[in-house]
Amino acid sequence: MTGLRLLRYIVRRLLQAVPVILGVTVLCFLLLQLAPGDLAEVLAGESGGASAEYIQDLRARYGLDKPVLVQLAVYVRNVFLFDLGFSFRHSSKVSDLLLERMMPTLLLMGTTLVLSVGLGALSGLFAAIWVRTWRDHVISLGAIIAYATPLFWVGLMLILVFSVWLDWFPTSGMENVVMFYEGWDRALDVAHHLVLPAITLSLFYLALYARLMRATMLEQRGLDYVTTARAKGLTERQITFRHVLRNALLPVVTMAGVQVGALLGGSVVVESVFAWPGLGQLAFEALFSRDFNLLLGIFFISACLVVFVNIVVDVVYVLLDPRIKVDE
Amino acid sequence: MNTFRQRFMGNPRVIAGLAWLGLVVLVAAAAPLIASHHPFEIVAEPFLIPSLEHPFGTDSLGRSIWAGLVHGARTTLVIAILATLASVAFGTLVGALAGYFGGLVDDGLMRLTEFFQTIPSFIFAIVLVAILTPSATSLIVAIAVVSWPPIARVVRGEVLSVKAREYVQAAVLVGQGDMAILFRQVLPNTLSPLIVTGSLLVATAILIESALSFLGLGAPNLMSWGFMVGAGRSFLRDAWWLVTIPGVAILLTVLSINLVGEGLNDALNPRLSDL
């Protein structure tokens, strides 16, 4: 019964997501129409200038001469058929490009999520246990500083210290392409390249979760169920780990879900600093070469990702806390 | 029970934050007097290490980093504050209307808010700046457009709780119009969470502004801290101070705003300050 109800809930959430994603697509499409210049002008500009007729010809070839609403209708219809169009810039299908570039970004984001939620929750937990001691002050101070540091600057400072001065990690890229590693060697090489970007992207979120975790742990500790547990004769350790910890994790999970969109934005900066070949880099290139099909595809895929993760978080939430009911 | 002032000013973190912010504001206001050079003017040889004559050294083109810092403070602060004001104004309007009228208005406006929260905000800001062509105004617009949703949510929540109070019902009985009740009775009582959220938003705005400038999407004729970091990054190996110094300025400023904002929160909600 519960399984069926959960399934129905997931289906309902997925259906609710359709208009949101559609809305994002339409809004982005219309916004991009406002951008100065189009693909035809960029192509003409790159070939050293072209006559007005040639530009018109290019526009007709790419369907850019039709009215905006017609272009929009065509685009939306294609999206429903899972056809994200063609990137004239890269001479390849947008879906292929997205698939190719999605893995590095997902790798970066996934590592960051695990690192920041894990270490963040852990340091918040310890700060709460050691509340008002010097250890708590050190963790809290570290968190508040990390929370205020610009991502791109952390990245550059890490490069300066660990790549330039100490020469422990590579400065950029995802793998050493000239070495032609395969199998485990390749995985190890990618992991080696991943260390600095993942730390850079994690630091801010780690601080965020640590602060949240500490605050909720302290808040939960004053609640009635803790008094009951103490009255039952449980030790402080049992109370903290069996009761308080589980309740304090809920807001962290929620926050982690909310932050996925922001994480994607942060990865644009990190990918730019470390020349990490992911979606963020692709979005940036697409924007400047006016490759709107590609850019729209990136927006579409990121909106899908954000919605998907939010649903996953809500499901995890239901599984973590039996008190939360899926039916309204 | 201490007064607000005692709780706020008695907090050493707040004092430290206010001190740095005061310094930055002062320096930003008096920028042309403090730094005698224009920030884009070449004053000496490139890549000079910080010295007495050039307190923070010179950059890759021989521009004074001190002049850049001082004028950058101006750009960064003005853009961040204007963007915050714009997003607070818009977010308050949306949140107040949604919370006060409820029903369909609430549904519609909250869907709009959720919608804006679904779009990855930083990528959206990049696109907005590119579409509007990079300038101080488009930075302000882009930052405001991506930062109003949290404000709308906070205000809506507050309005919902204030709306049910007796003095609002009394105002309804007396026959005051909806707008008069909303603006004279309800909104003034939502101020304290709004001030806290708004002050923390300035910090976020500075981070977004410097990230955009770092990527080369800043206002083209204005020196800013993010731009300085971006311009220095190619010379990281040989001239580390080009990147380090402006970054520390961003870090300290954002940190100070957070400290003051949290101090405000603790002082306004004394129950929570024990945490």
Structural features, described:
The complex is a heterodimer of chains A (328) and B (275). Chain A has 328 residues and is an all-alpha fold. Chain A folds into 2 domains: 3-93, no CATH class; 101-320, MetI-like fold, CATH 1.10.3720.10. Chain A has helices at 2-34, 39-46, 52-61, 68-80, 94-129, 134-148, 151-165, 183-221, 224-231, 236-258, 260-274, 279-288, 292-320; strands spanning 86-87, 92-93. Chain A has a two-stranded antiparallel sheet with strand order 1-2. The two termini of chain A are 16 Å apart. The model of chain A has no long low-confidence stretch (mean pLDDT 82). By secondary structure, chain B is mainly α. Chain B has one domain (4-35, 65-274): Orthogonal Bundle (MetI-like fold). Helices cover 72% and strands 0% of the residues of chain B. Chain B has helices spanning 4-9, 12-29, 31-34, 65-101, 103-118, 121-132, 136-163, 166-174, 178-186, 191-214, 225-232, 241-268. The chains are: A mainly alpha (328), B mainly alpha (275).
Q: Please compute the radius of gyration of chain B using only Cα atoms.
A: 22 Å
Quick one: overall form of chain A?
A: globular
CATH architecture of chain B: Orthogonal Bundle
The CATH homologous superfamily name of chain B equals MetI-like
* Helical stretch tally of chain A: 13
List low-confidence stretches of chain B. Answer: none
Q: How many β-strand runs of chain A?
A: 2
CATH architecture of the largest domain in chain A: Orthogonal Bundle
Spatial strand arrangement across the major sheet of chain A? 1-2
Query: How many structural domains can be distinguished in the coordinates of chain B?
Result: 1
Largest interface: A-B, 50 and 39 residues
Strand composition percent of chain B: under 5%
Elements of chain A, N to C (H/E): HHHHEEHHHHHHHHH
Q: Structural class of chain A, please?
A: mainly alpha
H/I helix tally of chain B: 12
Overall body shape of chain B: elongated
| Main beta-sheet strand count, sense and barrel state of chain A | 2 strands, antiparallel
What class do helices, strands and sheet pairing of chain B give?
mainly alpha
Along the chain, the helix and strand elements of chain B come as HHHHHHHHHHHH
- Percent range of helical residues of chain B: over 70%
What is the number of E strands of chain B?
0
